[in-house]
């Protein structure tokens, strides 16, 4: 592959020379050129770091305190010639390593899929057409369009820049954005001074620009510095780390405790060394939850994948946990609650109001006044409005397979469609009125203006923006085809309100003629003699599925707040439609500014809709919600939303309309911008947390139950009801089957009917500790009970032990079915049916247990005997009994909780 020509000092050459040298033009490359260059230069990406080899991965699995303890135990049992025990322990270690590797594979696949979904996009001009493509597909000579919030996708020599500011900290360390321009600079200019260049990986903070690609992949400045993409993160969250540390400490405690048991047994109770040692090894191995860390990671990987399937891409893994505890979702309106499929449906001019018909983005439709179609071209005001819609516009309509769509902002697409319906020739009229300068749209000033020159020597400024803003800026209004008059503010404000209260997004269109010599556009130009032409009302239908999602939030104790840049009345109309609680009171950005902190804290509790807000308001609102003790999810799309997204507990960026800057500041990206996906992510977040809790609630009593069976027997100086090697077997067969199944549990029916989890709630809660004690006691009672029964029946000690071991396993299986439902009853068909994973696990366990009980060779190794049929039934009955007792206890607990809650509510 040939290298791109980045040894040339592109910054020192003028734009024309650069375009010539790249054999390109401001209209972009041809299809033929692109194919050739892709072959010649390859993809625009940095090399990936090499993956670790299987062998290395395998070896790394053994680096774990829990495993060290197991290996030492294996070595000592081997020294004592207890080969069966050694092999079972070695098998436990190996199976664990294999599960570890598989788990890593799953985690890696989950992360890879995410990386693909987050691939950088670039807007380019090819063959005169604006298209969006993966940044990897860029070739030298491509023309890239830059807008606020974009991440620069390759090294570019700029040939067009309007107020273009780029933050280059990753290259220069300078956190202030630098203003870009298009003139060549000194050959010797330092990187930070090459103001006519835009470098790959840097972020556009404001303005617009265009540049020609002069370096891709490793040939970019960032490629030369870093050479490689950064290493993939491992799948972990604070909670899992906490559990990891917990597991480590637990093993230390277990070893110390085992040593204590050994000492008591040896010196006080006078056990024979080898027998006692084996029993202690058995209890140690059983008590150590060696599979736990791996299973927790699997739970996370399953969660990440489940979220990705629901269009929520986790960028920062701790977000999975945070999402489960969200108590308020602050959401944008456009595109998140609504479809972002816009169409102009109403017009208001000084003299007349109009309706606009037509389907989708097809520029065909009828404009009528009082139900009578009008001859658009003959109405000069309409023609002028069409011109503003067409020229003060950066998007393009495209027709693919007979479907009209938009490349760029859907609202601008709707305006182009509208211009078409007015009767303008979209392509030729746009060419006729070449754009000379531009003030790009910015959420802080809420308008966009362009300066255009026509071939015949006319020049004009075209402005579109929020009605309040333009009504304030304009000094005149167009009253008919020829005449203008002084603006009547009240008239227009009423018109705008009438349109907004129907849920329409309202835009005002304005214009001003200027002299042909006028070639640079400034804010001042827009502030004098601007003529208001009229208003357009755009319809953006709410997403119908949002209504249910909001209901689900409410039942899950999650508040929903709409924070929009749109008009208060538009926001309120949409809010009503989608079922927000409080839609009568809307707080605007201007009103927010007037509130002090205490008033704000009160207001955010009562108000559900915040309109005409700017990104700074979002930041203030997040802080206010957090001060009120809420855990906040906040959506955002623009470059200026980044501080609020970072501040929120879960920052959520829009994948489709969101800027790269917003994505980088957020912990979650929505692939489809849809509010429903946020709720799905919260649901999955809760599920992951529940599953982690289930894994822990199952594993720990299982370990303690197994361990205490041995400890109690030792302490009571009685024969072990299950031998050490049998305990090792049970530990091995259940840990890798039953233990893992819980990581794949689906969401419980009642998960979204619980209030949000309190943040930083300790995992080992009082309830969990009680559960551990309770289940351990039941396990011990079950095992000793059946053992005693068997001995009393006159069975051999081997048969009694076989029955005790099988009882332990059966109880673990029933315990698993019990754990699957934390919030409701386990006695439903759905609960019994379980999941595929649960049944695979149970079937494996049954096969294992049948083998160890009935296969002669296994009977010799593990000293077991075939269990008679009726006793087999008894063993299963004990499992059923455990389930019944545990379920009754849970139901009593749930009922008491409900009763207490009701009492508390009454007392209030
Ligand atoms: P939402 O929260 O609903 O997504 P938004 O983020 O689209 O709102 P802003 O982008 O801040 O809101 O826009 C605020 C207002 O600015 C809009 O209501 C509209 O009147 C005006 N506006 C938006 N985009 C443009 C544009 N490209 N050109 C001119 N005016 C615009």
Automatic annotation (TrEMBL):
Main location (coarse class): membrane
UniProt protein name: ATPase, P-type (Transporting), HAD superfamily, subfamily IC
PROSITE patterns assigned: ATPASE_E1_E2
Record family assignment: Belongs to the cation transport ATPase (P-type) (TC 3.A.3) family. Type IIA subfamily.
GO biological process per UniProt: intracellular potassium ion homeostasis; intracellular sodium ion homeostasis; potassium ion import across plasma membrane; proton transmembrane transport; sodium ion export across plasma membrane
Keywords in alphabetical order: ATP-binding, Cell membrane, Membrane, Metal-binding, Nucleotide-binding, Translocase, Transmembrane, Transmembrane helix
UniProt-recorded Gene Ontology molecular function terms: ATP binding; ATP hydrolysis activity; metal ion binding; P-type sodium:potassium-exchanging transporter activity
Cellular-component GO terms for this entry: plasma membrane
Residue intervals passing through the bilayer: 54-76, 82-102, 249-270, 276-302, 695-720, 726-744, 764-787, 799-818, 838-857, 869-888
Domain (Cation-transporting P-type ATPase N-terminal) ranges: 9-82
Membrane topology listed for this record: Multi-pass membrane protein
